[in-house]
Specification:
2 domains; Rossmann fold; alpha+beta
């Protein structure tokens, strides 16, 4: 993504290091929360979608250690998009379907909660295009922990087992310098690929930029026209040799992404995690960012949701245009680093996010109704939901749109809303609490548990049930929340 065109106007104030108890540091970007906007003065809300799920898994790591996550590690949009919602697939002529729902807001009396949903076209494994992957694996000294390189080795081995004969993978490693561990090899040679992965060992400094350059060269040399050409980078983000700043790496990746090669980033480890850098290079590399904290997360990323590695929609943008006669004020919950200028929505040259096959994207708005809302006004329309995206290998965007209407009898209570609405509200409330948000209202642990527990009917892999267990674990710890961006509670 081109940060200059889409970053939040409330924006990124600074980057900071949040130090843990043994003096190591983790790096997160700080963004101010989206404020309430006056619909009469600013009716349009525009943002790029965010398909990442890293912040949720990273938060789970903290809770599992008996700690609260750093406030800026909590990105509510990534909490929501960690989960698959029960949204309908698109019709035959589209790769995207959109939907919406409005209910009362559980943490603010008199306010409403508006959910917009997006679903990428599901594609059967047999129908996915052939893959040209490059596993780019950090083998520097900082990766020599049991929760780092061994985790990546297990994940890439699991992914190898899913390869088809027409798929191929190369393996590039980097420490003090980059090296090619395995030239591009077809999926019917799984033994050769597994053997190469098993040889991986950590040691040395980290020349990440050189490794990226090597990976892009190999991916381009083996490019499959119309295929899924992608680099999958596994690292803790501790680049310290050669170009290593986030800005330098983003500049490198922007030059390479035009070749049709995607970049997915898999973050691992604790203590020196560079979350800010990994999120930025994934976003600018037309890819996604995931964090792996345990064996089940390995299975989720590399096996159960493997189809997400194939993008069915590119440069995906949302524009919600509110009717001031129905809505007095609105606030987008999360997506602070994805907010775009409204004029960018129609510009196909402006980069935005990608959506994988079968992937769902969810966004929530807290809205303050005007006097007409839900009272049978002439239009009955709260807002217009427009969505633009590009089909794979297309440079021209398509646009979808639906009206979001005020319920005739007023917005239903959250208890009478759909499971999707209740679960989204639970996850958002949890995120607001962990962030210490000024907008959390009456949100508390009881609300989070009640809403979530009553919304687990759709749960293909048990991730919603795991969420309930995680929140209960947090409650058992006394509901810890950071008071600031440092260690202090």
């Amino acid at each position: 993504m081109d940060n200059g065109s889409w970053i939040s106007p409330y924006g990124m104030d600074k980057n900071y290091c949040a130090c843990d108890m043994n003096g190591e540091s983790e790096h997160y970007a700080h963004y101010s929360e989206n404020p309430f906007m006056d619909a009469s003065k600013n009716p349009a809300s525009t943002f790029s979608i965010d398909a990442d799920g890293a912040a949720y898994a990273n938060m789970r790591r903290f809770i599992s250690k008996g700690e609260a996550p750093y406030r800026d590690a909590v990105r509510i949009e990534e909490f929501l998009n960690y989960f698959t919602f029960d949204y309908a697939d698109p019709g035959a002529d589209e790769n995207i379907a959109i939907s919406s729902e409005v209910s009362q807001c559980p943490w603010a009396v008199g306010h409403q909660l508006m959910r917009v949903g997006i679903k990428g076209k599901s594609v059967a494994e047999a129908d996915l295009p052939s893959e040209n992957f490059v596993y780019l694996i950090d083998v520097s000294g900082s990766m020599d922990d049991e929760n780092k390189l061994p985790v990546l080795k297990a994940g890439f081995t699991a992914m190898t087992e899913q390869m088809r004969a027409t798929d191929k993978v190369a393996i590039v490693t980097y420490a003090g310098e980059s090296g090619v561990l395995l030239q591009s090899t077809y999926g019917d040679e799984k033994g050769t690929i597994r053997k190469a992965i098993s040889k991986l060992g950590a040691g040395g400094s980290t020349a990440g930029a050189e490794g990226l350059q090597t990976a892009y060269k190999i991916a381009e040399a083996n490019l499959i026209p119309g295929g899924n050409n992608r680099i999958i980078l596994g690292t803790d983000g501790d680049f310290n040799v050669g170009p290593s700043s986030t800005e330098e790496l983003v500049a490198l990746i922007k030059k390479e992404r035009e070749k049709g090669i995607y970049l997915t980033v898999i973050g691992v480890g604790t203590g020196n995690l560079n979350d800010n850098m990994m999120e930025q290079i994934a976003d600018n590399g037309n890819g996604n960012y995931e964090y792996v904290d345990n064996a089940k997360q390995l299975e989720k990323v590399f096996v159960n949701e493997r189809s997400k590695f194939y993008a069915v929609a590119g440069d995906s943008k949302v524009q919600i245009t509110f009717d001031p006669a129905m809505v007095s004020q609105y606030r987008l919950i999360g997506y602070e680093n994805r907010v775009m200028d409204s004029t960018s929505f129609q510009k196909d040259s402006v980069d935005a996010g990608e959506i994988g096959a079968g992937q769902t994207i969810t966004a929530l708005y807290e809205i303050i109704p005007s006097g007409n809302a839900g009272k049978g006004s002439v239009s009955g329309k709260i807002a217009r939901f427009d969505f633009r995206y590009k089909m794979p290998n297309s440079s021209t965007a398509r646009q979808l749109g639906i009206d979001i209407n005020a319920p005739q009898d007023g917005a239903p209570s959250i208890e009478k809303a759909s499971d999707n609405q209740r679960f989204a509200a639970s996850v958002a409330a949890y995120g607001l609490i962990l962030r210490g948000s000024e907008y959390k209202g009456s949100a508390d642990s009881d609300m989070v548990i009640k809403l979530g527990t009553n919304a687990v009917k759709f749960d293909p892999y048990g991730y919603r049930e795991e969420y309930i267990d995680l929140v209960n674990r947090w409650i058992s710890l006394g509901c810890p929340v950071r008071k600031s961006s440092d260690n202090n509670y």
